[in-house]
Specification:
mainly alpha
Length: 458
């Protein structure tokens, strides 16, 4: 127990740069592996099943976002709360949070999976499916939903491990999942001839194996946070706090679900089913860089949460500065790839020349404002990490609802009326919303930093 407490309390004493590297590198590796995990499915499905299968897979993105919304509602909220309680030396509360994470993930994961399975076909048609793509989307998503409770539990416990001072173990869990999935994908898709269903089975089975390992780690009584009797009864105050903090990423993922539906419908209307597949490829590539920034954010989260709880505002601002710099470097690399080598990037997923052309054109547009979205993501996560849920929620929603939604509703028709391809309006809405949302984030962050500086002077 002494070792674990030391791992937690070092967040308030060790050099910030060292801590950020120590916590971010495992998280970045884990998140990069997680993005590769998604890309592997797309690559094997695109090359082994066909271009329409990629469109079918892209139709599942809104439902995946919705599932992720409920997962982050518990996982992110609990991770932030655990970091803050450890900073306050309230170890008993941190233990009860662990128990409540298990119960909430089981209830929400099981409930979401059952309800969506009952209405899967109508949901997919609403998302933009056609007779050419519904079969692929149904085959993939039905398997994923059957294992939804496993996915929720796996992601939730990974967040707990990271916040409890075990970033490397959290990383290993993710890497194990990716490696197992990568091995099983070709075996199930090609060897057993299961097609897109094989990719889904590989995904769920890989998560099951990693979840068993997580349970083993958290069953060790020598750990500060571990499973034992008396921690699983839902506590109203803890549940309320978890859901309040997790509401920001929850709403962000719910709005992302709604936005992707609009993107799919707009692209289908102005470009057809293959255009949806092009977006699926671009989304996977953008996701790769976004996940690296999320890894940085995950490394920052326990450091920021602990030092905010300990009222060490100088350390809080230092970790924010370093994370913003790192995130900007990552997204700038994404910008260079999107503008200079888009054809090379999308050709990894398919050999279909028309799909490659459509995806490359879309990638150049979507990645146009990439250098600044790292800052916007870090700022949103910063407010979330220190428990300022309303600010984080507003920033999460500003890009999606205030800026991207109007663009998706009006730009395609405006450009179509001017004689251009309406699909360009869908693509252009994305970088435009990135620009405006980053400006709003900058204004809110500057205002909050002034308050921290005043507290440091008292």
């Amino acid at each position: 127990m002494t070792v674990i407490k030391g791992a937690a309390t070092e967040l308030g004493t060790e050099r910030i740069r060292k801590l950020l590297v120590q916590y971010s590198v495992p998280a970045i590796i884990a998140m990069t592996a997680s993005s590769l995990y998604n890309m592997v499915d797309s690559i094997f499905i695109g090359l082994g099943v066909g271009p329409m299968a990629i469109s079918g897979l892209a139709l599942t993105f809104p439902l995946m976002n919705l599932a992720a919304a409920f997962g982050s509602l518990v996982g992110v909220g609990a991770a932030t709360l655990i970091s803050m309680r450890l900073g306050q030396k309230d170890y008993a509360s941190a233990q009860y949070i662990l128990g409540n994470v298990v119960v909430l993930n089981f209830i929400i994961g099981l409930g979401f999976g059952l309800v969506t399975l009952l209405f899967l076909d109508p949901i997919l048609y609403f998302f933009g499916a056609s007779e050419a793509t519904i079969g692929y989307a149904r085959d993939y998503m039905s398997i994923i939903l059957m294992g939804n409770v496993v996915t929720h539990m796996y992601l939730g416990l990974n967040s707990v491990l990271r916040s409890a001072g075990h970033p490397r173990k959290s990383m290993y869990a993710t890497i194990n999942t990716v490696v197992i999935n990568t091995i099983l994908d070709p075996l199930f898709i090609y060897g057993f001839g299961w097609g897109i269903r094989g990719a889904a089975i590989a995904t769920v089975l890989a998560q099951v194996i990693s979840l068993v390992w997580q349970f083993r780690l958290l069953s060790d009584s020598s750990e500060l946070l571990h499973f034992h009797r008396g921690i699983y009864r839902p506590r109203k105050r803890i549940v309320k706090e978890i859901l309040a903090i997790g509401m920001s990423p929850f709403l962000m993922n719910v709005t992302a679900c709604f936005i992707v539906i609009l993107i799919n419908k707009g692209l289908k209307e102005h470009g057809g089913d293959l255009m949806i597949g092009a977006y699926g490829i671009v989304n996977r590539l953008a996701f790769f860089f976004v996940m690296i920034v999320m890894g940085l954010n995950q490394g920052m989260q326990p450091i920021a949460g602990y030092n905010f709880g300990a009222r060490q505002y100088d350390r809080l601002m230092h970790v924010l500065k370093l994370t913003v710099i790192g995130a900007t470097c990552v997204t700038s690399l994404g910008f260079l790839l999107g503008e200079l080598l888009p054809h090379w990037a999308v050709a990894v997923f398919t050999t279909d020349e028309e799909l490659i052309r459509l995806a490359a054109e879309g990638m150049r547009i979507v990645f146009l404002c990439f250098p600044i979205i790292g800052f916007q993501m870090v700022t949103t996560n910063f407010f979330q990490s220190i428990g300022m849920a309303p600010k984080a929620i507003f920033l999460s929603l500003s890009r999606q609802l205030l800026f991207l939604l109007p663009g998706l509703l009006f730009l395609p028709d405006i450009l179509a009326g001017m004689g251009y391809n309406g699909s360009w309006g869908v693509w252009c809405s994305m970088p435009l919303s990135d620009l405006l949302a980053s400006l709003v984030a900058a204004l809110m962050l500057l205002r909050e930093l002034r308050r921290f500086r005043k507290r440091m002077q008292i």
